[in-house]
Write a structure and sequence with these properties.
Length: 691
Amino acid sequence: MKEYTTENLRNVALVGHQGAGKTSLVEALLYNTGAINRLGRVEEGNTTSDWDEDEQARGISLSTSLIPIEFNDHKINILDTPGYTDFQGEVKNAIRVTDTAIVIVDAVSGVEVGTELAFDYAQEYGQPIIVALNKMDRENANFENALNSLRENFPDYKFIPVMIPIGEESDFKGVVNLLTQKAYYDEGKDRSDLPDDMADAVEEARMVLVEAAAESDDDLIEKYFEEGDLSNEEIRDGMRSAARNPELKTVPVFVTSATHNIGTVPLLEALVAYTSPPSSRPVRITNADGEETTIEPPLSDDGPLAAYVFKTTNDRYVGTLTYFRIFSGKINADARYYNATQDTEERFGSLMVLRGKEQENVSVLHAGDIGVVSKLSKTVTGDTFSDKNNPIQVVPPTFPDPLYMVAVSPRTQADSAKMGPILNDLCAADPTLRWRQDPAVRQTILEGMGDVHVAVAIGRAEKLGVGIDTAMPKVPYKETISKTYSTSYRHKKQSGGSGQFAEVHLRVEPNPGNGYEYDSEVFGGAISSTYIPSIDKGIQGVLKEGVIAGYPVVDVKAVVFDGKEHPVDSKDIAFQIAGREVFKEAFAGAGPILQEPIMDVEITVPESMMGDVLSDLNTRRARVQGMDTVGVKSVVRAQVPLAEMLRYGNNLRSISGGRGIYTMKFSHYEPVPSHLQDEIIAASKREAEEA
């Protein structure tokens, strides 16, 4: 692959719903440029993008693939992203580091969940959008219906066809380029004359295209009013400007059939003509003083180095591969660069460009390019390389909180030492994946965006050499009390020689929001000051283990108000034991209650499905906080116990046919209903007996 400078680079992210045909479209683009000599198929597991064994087995993309394509003296870096909603983090990072989002929409299904997420992320980062209506050859494919679906779901955008189809469904045989008013048939790259029966439709659609291009610039509007038309170059420039204008929100629309390689050549031409070079992209950074600012265009090799790491992968044989986008400056092979995020220098040995799994070494990458380097020791996803004397950091995306969790445990003793470091590596590579030790339930918890996301992560851990077993995670309940209660306990042990004696009178009080507190009201030397801390130590030994169900104790104030000691037999251990036991008795008499975590949940579904969602929420002890309508979608906000949400993603997918999404974050703790509390306590006792 030859060397490309900034103005001859294009960076695009292929995004959209699962099954819309992104990976197949990449195959067609590669085939049309001669990079491959036959079209791979997702069903056969031989595509360039989905080269990983897990992807081939599941038949879906699981991570972002880098696919550079050389065309008309340009290099187009395509990031082929997963469409499955579990992998939102991959999509966000891909849109963050490219300059245009190419949203692939199924011409049969129209707008789906993945389509909405793609538009949301593109808007969040101010990225222009191009839409490709794919699968025009399928049964029930309809150009106008798909276009109307876009307009209904995204009323703020103007969708302007640049291509229109020649035929539909099994009769789909080509496209018309409204700019040149020429036809492309089947796989042909050559332009042909228009079909006779499409002249009026083409003229009408072209007028809409010209007007949309003219709106982007006052000079173009003036020329259009004077002459009634614009040149092809002016239309392309106008549409490119209109797409980047946040007020106009213009979206060029193309039509394709990736598997039949129809309409893909004009789309390939559009990836150069309708997208901007990376030099025109401003980039948000944090400067050395910690202030957010912007590196303004034009970005070039001569600017300050700013290379953002958007993806890392771990392979037990190859090691770590680090994917980065150079926003400003340039990077050479066999050089050292400063990681401003980690405050460390890293040596870049071989500099590579990847096409799927194929690697090609290069000597230099210029501003705007995307590349890969192997075997960096400290760098993780989200880091920035910059000049050491100007340590700037590219502002990373914000990622959603995890929605799905499993309890993980090492399969063997040998796996125990390896599990933590490998989970650390996986979570450092994927910002939407997290793991933690939960002392409340004494489990190791792995969290992700869904069951497939977590299953893929565990599969990768196994490939890296650690065996992991999974189980349903326990809910981290907490124990507390509802009223004040006093009691006493005498510990007396005599077995020859020195005995043990301690008597403690204790009062426990609810202490909401203030955790555990300990106090003494002992006067007159009933208990020596030496033993007061011993009682506290005994009580604290109970706090982690709980009293009624084995969960941590919170928000309790314990007050020692009387007691007795023996001049010979009283000692530290005796008062620890007495403190522990008197606290258990006092806690049990003080109206003990379990508290459960309550989550703030926001669910977005098609309006027609809201009734089913609300009915399901009612079975989950949810309290609906409000409902809104956004376009053709309904949004419900509710507070729901975590115990009812552990596998909610699977249920929502079933209820909504995969068209629903939700977010969830912790809100607060509140008491468990009494009938459920009894069940939880009974289950905890059975588990303790079995253990």
